[in-house]
Design goal:
Number of strands: 9
Strand content: 15-25%
Structural class: alpha/beta
Helix content: 25-40%
Oligomer: single chain
Number of domains: 2
CATH superfamily of the largest domain: HUPs
Bound molecules: adenosine monophosphate
CATH class of the largest domain: Alpha Beta
Radius of gyration: 19 Å
Shape: globular
CATH architecture of the largest domain: 3-Layer(aba) Sandwich
Distance between the termini: 45 Å
Strand order of the largest sheet: 1-4-3-2-5-6
CATH topology of the largest domain: Rossmann fold
Number of helices: 10
Largest sheet: 6 strands, parallel
């Protein structure tokens, strides 16, 4: 496994891999790897000849006052975990390597980025789509792997790949969870033991929503109220949003119909957690 920090060396390596006719599976990450990342990496390894990841905490997708500086970083630990999955290459550039002085090109997906996290984190998805485009251009993957955990991100990137005719297969894999249901996230590290225990309410509320839908409830306001009540059982939880949207366009629904995404963002202290499920009714 090679760790590459500069673009010139990466290009050289990718050229060699392509010349051999090997397929490339790619998993972009911000590092501080956990089982969620590893599940994507293991699938990428299985489905491709060569598996690469990127570890880059992308300043462009963090807003003012967000946790760019504090975001956990531990390359030595990530290196060990990546090795255990059979990873062939880690691309871990500096901010300067990705955005040299004078950098001025951005990729924007309209509409799908307006609601949910796009509404509460202005500019976030512009940062995501820009960095992911750069990474795709650099790694030239045949297949890319993303987590359902960041559902809106997956929808937005899929749209970008389609709209810009990017020649790759876009694969979304299920959310990997802790035993109590909390979605794995590098940000879970910020939680105090008490907040960590409380955070299990997120998935508990989503499971209850699914149960109501299966039993026939279609009224979105009723389902949102049940989710909100369960989350409010946790003393430290501050709800940022609970939304139920159509997966076709991420627009809010009044009644459940077709494939629906139930997504939420909740803060525990300063820590912002997201989770979601998809329902088919
Ligand atoms: P991040 O490092 O948080 O930017 O995540 C990198 C990739 O891993 C993204 O595609 C995420 O959706 C995915 N990911 C993060 N957490 C999980 C999880 N718990 N289960 C599955 N995929 C995840």
């Amino acid at each position: 496994m090679e760790i590459i920090k500069d673009i010139a060396r990466l290009r050289e390596r990718i050229r060699e891999v392509k010349k051999k006719g090997l397929s490339i599976g790619f998993v972009p990450t911000m590092g501080y790897l956990h089982e969620g990342h590893l599940s994507l990496m293991k699938t990428a390894k299985k489905e491709n000849d060569f598996m690469a990841i990127s570890i880059f905490v992308n300043p462009l997708q963090f807003g003012a006052g967000e946790d760019f500086e504090e975001y956990p970083r531990d390359l030595a630990r990530d290196e060990m975990l990546a090795r255990s999955t059979g990873c062939d290459l880690i691309f871990s550039p500096s901010v300067k390597e990705m955005y040299p002085t004078g950098y001025g090109t951005f990729v924007e997906v309209k509409k799908l980025t307006e609601g949910l996290c796009g509404a509460s984190r202005p500019g976030h998805f512009l940062g995501v789509t820009t960095v992911v485009t750069k990474l795709f251009n650099l790694l030239r993957p045949d297949r890319v792997y993303f987590g359902q955990k960041d559902a809106q991100q997956a929808f937005v990137l899929k749209k970008m790949v389609n709209d810009l005719n990017m020649d790759l297969e876009f694969i979304v894999l299920p959310t990997f969870r802790e035993d109590d249901g909390l979605a794995m996230s590098s940000r879970n590290k910020y939680l105090t033991p008490e907040q960590r225990k409380e955070a299990a309410v997120l998935y508990k509320s989503l499971k209850q929503a699914r149960k109501l839908a299966v039993e026939g409830e279609r009224n979105v306001e009723v389902i949102k109220k049940v989710i909100s009540d369960i989350i409010s059982e946790a003393g430290h939880a501050q709800i940022e949003y609970i939304e139920i949207v159509d997966t076709q366009n991420l627009r809010s629904l009044h009644m459940l119909k077709g494939e629906c995404l139930i997504a939420l963002a909740v803060k525990f202290g300063q820590t912002r957690l997201i989770d979601n499920i998809i329902l088919e009714v």
